[in-house]
Batch of 2 targets.
Target 1
Amino acid sequence: MSVTTMRIDDRLIHGQIVTRWIADAQADTILIADDMAAGDATQQMLLKLVAPANINLLIKTINEAAQLLASSELDDKKVLLMLRNPATALALCNLGFHIDTINVGNISNARSETGRKKLLSFIFVEAQDVECLKALAAKGIHLDIRAVPNDKSIDAMELLKKY
């Protein structure tokens, strides 16, 4: 499989991705599967500015990403797959993509009208996030919470017992 790491992080590309996760994933390609980013030229420009020059950056809708991942086009690549939130990850998996482990990174408290419950300093969830994470786990996917690769892994299902 071409995807070496799949990560949920609402910031998509930022310092930790550039300095830690690309190397940990041994990635030569970042695939962002996100309808909002795929449809926003300004967001695409910003993501291209922060991506390292030696990394191939692809920004696709969820449907486009599912089709790309199902094809053989990325077979010779090592891909860091980035998603904005648990709902996006679940949507991609519901379209047929499967991976054994998803890294759950930053889920911020921003953009929430209903408020989010703080589980960790970088994980804030609301009911929809919890439902989507549980649905991913029900598909047999291990949900590994770590901010950076060398952090101790936290099992998301154990953490969600606090919700």
Note: The mean pLDDT is 93.
Target 2
Amino acid sequence: MRVLGVASASAALALGVAGQALACNITEFSAEAQCDGNKGVIVVTDKDGSGTPATITVFSKNAAGVEKQVGEPQDVKGSAQGTTVTFQEDWKPNATYRVHVKAGNLVDEDVKPDLVTPSTACKKEESQTPTPPATPTPKPSASTSTPTPSASESSSAPATTPSNAPSPAAGDGNLAETGANSNTGLIAGVAGALVVAGGGAVYFGMRRRGANSSR
């Protein structure tokens, strides 16, 4: 009987230790500040192999110790591989957060130590301005242009102004030389004097004949 009693006590003790090992424990919870793109998040991981449901609440703490709840509490059911819940929080560098875990009657305490964020904030994604396409350089046309004379060439060339006067007919030069010179008036005067003298001579000759016949 004594042997049977010792064996029963040993089995009960083993079952108690195994039950405690499988029960939810605060050491199975961890928190980390991460970046989701250019925004900050707080990720809490539950590695409770027993799968005990738990409620996670996160609080931010300032330098004066004043706390502010981050978002709403979230429920999680742990696993041996780890189950995570994410809190959207655009955290600042070197900020402090308190993570509280409530799992039925097994756990009701904070994750130790408090979460302290990295000293570098999440990087903002730089917006890339699209580069405008390069404007193609126009190629010179194959057509040839007429060269423009320079100012010196245009000034040295004689200016020929067309005349509206009719050109002289052939033979006009001879008429000008024979009848339009300064001797024409003199010849005409001598000829006139000769005609007058001849007429006077005829007149006097006829009168003389008349006088002789009357005798």
Note: Confidence is low (pLDDT under 50) at residues 3-9, 11-20, 175-180.
